[in-house]
Amino acid sequence: MSDAPGGYFLDTGRSGLLGTLDEIDAVTASKPLKSGPDTIASHSAHVLYILRFFAAHERGENPEHDWPSSWRTYQVDEGAWNRLRDELRTTYDSVVARLKVRREWPGPAIGASMMLLAHCAYHVGVIHRTRTVVGGG
Predict the structure, then answer these.
(1) Sign of dihedral through CA atoms 91, 113, 127, 45?
(2) Does the chain have fewer CB atoms within 10 Å around its N or its C terminus?
């Protein structure tokens, strides 16, 4: 969510990734598009993986990546969907808090942040499109 003046134009708290996911139920989150197996839940779990991976690098860790494991969630019940959304919000808030206090921005940090932004934006777009196609909320 944007704290910037005028940020309401871009993110009212009901848009963006977290606001969008809050308006989607587990049944809708588990419906695949006709073109493949991916669901809103699978894209959400993948974004959570990316955020955690980025956060680990921000802490100075060098985690091994396992992209296939980030795509193992396709179906969720209400409990699993609530946990996934809570973990996304907590991880997102943690990443944002860390970036807000960062004093220096060397080239690799800028590049990694831009990659995170672009990659997550893609998945937010897919989630919006999927929600439109599968309906529900």
Answers:
(1) negative
(2) C
Does the pLDDT value for residue 9 go beyond 70?
A: no
Task: Map residue 39 onto helix, strand or coil.
Answer: coil
Residue 121's φ and ψ, nearest 5 degrees, are: -60, -40
Token digits of residue 114: 């831009």
CA angle 33, 89, 12 (to 5 degrees): 80
Mean pLDDT of 19-29: 92
pLDDT value for 17: 85
Q: Are 45 and 84 in contact (CB under 8 A)?
A: yes
CA dist., res. 99 & res. 108, Å (int): 14
Of 114, 106, 13, 101, which is closest to residue 54 (Cα–Cα)?
114
Alpha helices, H only, the chain? 16-22, 26-29, 40-58, 78-101, 107-134
Tens digits of residue pLDDT in 88-134: 999 999 999 999 999 999 998 899 999 999 999 999 999 988 988 88
Spatial distance between the Cα atoms of 21 and 29, rounded to a whole number of angstroms: 8
